[in-house]
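anyone seen this seq b4? input:
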Amino acid sequence: MNFLDPYTSTHYSKMSCMKKRVLLVPDEGLYLAFRLPPILREAGYGVDALCVAGDSIRHSRYLEDVIMVESIEEQIRYLHRHMGKEGTWDKLIIAKEPVVRHLAQHPEHEWILNWQPGLADPLVRDLFQDKGGIIQAAQAWGFPIPESRVCQTVDDLKIFASAVNGTVILKPMNGSGGEDVSLMPMRAKPTTSLIFPLLAQRFIEGEMGVVEMFCSKGVVRGWLASKMLVKLGQGFGASIARLFRHEADLAPIVECLAQKTRFEGFCGFDWIREKSSGKPYVVEFHPRATSGLRFGKACGVSFSQIAAEWKDSATATSPETQRPGCDIEAHYFSADFLRCLRQRDWKGLRQWLPRRNRYYDIYWDDPALLLTQSCQMLERSVKLLCKNILQ
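predicted toks r here
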């Protein structure tokens, strides 16, 4: 692996070879992107990464070149300088949501429309930029979402809560991973700490889950559905253990979003199935790779093969998806393991014992990355222990 100066062109030296090349802009740490390099390498790509300090993925043996910059702003400037030029990367994958949001605001750049052609549509731009964009997209494209409203003031929120006559879930417009999501019980007064604008949605009681999908030219090539088993922290944190299973009634939604967004590459959405009616709803769309892709092979969906066939033109084919009755239970390393230790959930810790149809993605095949993650785990554990002793 090479660590390269972002202001030189030395990293283009390999571009002339026949191997297809992809540039990955990872999320912070390992949460979303850390299993993309082996998937892409298996697909036949040479994988480079555009990283900032703290991106542990820079240690992965599956990367060929790593370009280090100082900030998200530098990442965006780097992309503007280099993408779309002859001799650079064949494909671009962005797993960092703030970068996607920023680029979605600037469809006037030709390279951005080459990366995501769907951004020529104002509805797609709104959907990519913040959570509120899902309202107009759902109305225009006909997929189900909970009753929703972008509220600019407390009075707006009161009017919406009165209209739905139930518990309301409140989301920051640009949050991710369940960050700062809260519930406002029925007929409760809004708290003074709320930051506007925000997205308000009718709270639906039922199973929650995620769909991971790969799309090209308006066609979904492969997808997985999973039900949340365990979430990180309290409230609405990210899921860290899931049950992957066939969800036939989500297929029309998957196909609709692929067709309308014309997304290129890995994306996904959160869903909830209403307990009383069994109806599935889309909660929010993710215009970037989602974390469950790492379990595609265990579910019988080869995202590597799908990515290998990522062409400039596409014809409609039946997408790969998990077969009925082939459920698997997946536990995320290291988040689920650490949660068990932190919460003294010894019963949950037993879930890490090997068993049929239970999977754990501990990356033994990427030792430098595993060592980095293990050191970070140890550091957090020591800090937590010291904090408990002092208390």
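The chain is about 30% helix and 25% strand. The first helix runs from residue 36 to 42. kinda curious what u guys think
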